[in-house]
TrEMBL record:
<keyword id="KW-0479">Metal-binding</keyword>
<protein>
    <submittedName>
        <fullName>Thiosulfate reductase electron transport protein phsB</fullName>
    </submittedName>
</protein>
<keyword id="KW-0004">4Fe-4S</keyword>
<dbReference type="InterPro" id="IPR050954">
    <property type="entry name" value="ET_IronSulfur_Cluster-Binding"/>
</dbReference>
<dbReference type="InterPro" id="IPR017896">
    <property type="entry name" value="4Fe4S_Fe-S-bd"/>
</dbReference>
<keyword id="KW-0411">Iron-sulfur</keyword>
<keyword id="KW-0408">Iron</keyword>
<dbReference type="GO" id="GO:0051539">
    <property type="term" value="F:4 iron, 4 sulfur cluster binding"/>
</dbReference>
<feature type="domain" description="4Fe-4S ferredoxin-type">
    <location>
        <begin position="88"/>
        <end position="117"/>
    </location>
</feature>
<dbReference type="GO" id="GO:0046872">
    <property type="term" value="F:metal ion binding"/>
</dbReference>
<feature type="domain" description="4Fe-4S ferredoxin-type">
    <location>
        <begin position="4"/>
        <end position="34"/>
    </location>
</feature>
<dbReference type="Pfam" id="PF13247">
    <property type="entry name" value="Fer4_11"/>
</dbReference>
<feature type="domain" description="4Fe-4S ferredoxin-type">
    <location>
        <begin position="56"/>
        <end position="87"/>
    </location>
</feature>
Length: 188
């Protein structure tokens, strides 16, 4: 049991998309698929999407499910298909999903998409069905990133790398005004 979260040293991103390829490969998503679990948002500041701070140097932002502790997707699903697992990861009972798409509409981060293969909604689940299920403690995007900008681990363990970096460095979450309490953190 853990309480997994992720932190991003986001300014180190060189927009190489190695994370995207690794994620698709690890989680059985076609390499050419347009809808998938992770994406790099370019020129976030220029578009003024999330922040009001002066970050004129930002060009690339790593985006995926924010693992909300108060998740609008979970509340919106009329079938009770979405739940939080023993590791604090927002998951889906696939057999209960009828593609109502209420979760997709409710997510403030556009993190959910339709998995055309299985006819359910999908999103990042920290490689729970693949790497974590095999007993590994890293995610595919984290281990592959050449800039090593991702920290992944147990937020409840004060000795984990992510807990230490969050203690040492200032950070922020996306769209705090949505009240979702994300477990993804962006390091200043
Ligand atoms: Fe759900 Fe979206 Fe929050 Fe992820 S980011 S837990 S999909 S509301
Ligand atoms: Fe994809 Fe795993 Fe990274 Fe989530 S943690 S974006 S599932 S590689």
């Amino acid at each position: 049991m853990a309480n997994y979260g992720m932190a991003f040293d986001y300014k180190l991103c060189i927009n190489c998309h190695a994370c995207e390829v690794a994620c698709k490969e690890e989680n059985g998503i076609d390499l050419g698929a347009k809808n998938h679990r992770l994406w790099i948002q370019e020129d976030a500041l220029v578009k003024g999407d999330f922040w009001d701070l002066d970050r004129s140097e930002i060009s690339f932002m790593q985006m995926q499910c924010q693992e909300c502790q108060d998740a609008p997707c979970l509340k919106a699903c009329p079938n009770g298909a979405i739940y939080v697992d023993e590791n604090g990861i927002v998951r889906l009972h696939q057999d209960k999903c009828d593609l109502t798409r209420a979760c997709m509409e409710a997510c403030p981060y556009d993190a959910r998409y339709v998995d055309e293969k299985n006819h359910v909604t999908d999103k990042c689940i920290f490689c729970a069905d693949t790497r974590l299920a095999r007993g590994e403690t890293t995610t595919a995007c984290q281990i592959t990133c050449p800039a090593k900008l991702r920290y992944f681990g147990d937020l409840d363990d004060e000795n984990s790398e992510i807990s230490k970096v969050l203690k040492e460095r200032e950070h922020f979450t996306l769209k705090p005004e949505a009240g979702t309490k994300p477990k993804l953190f962006y390091l200043k």
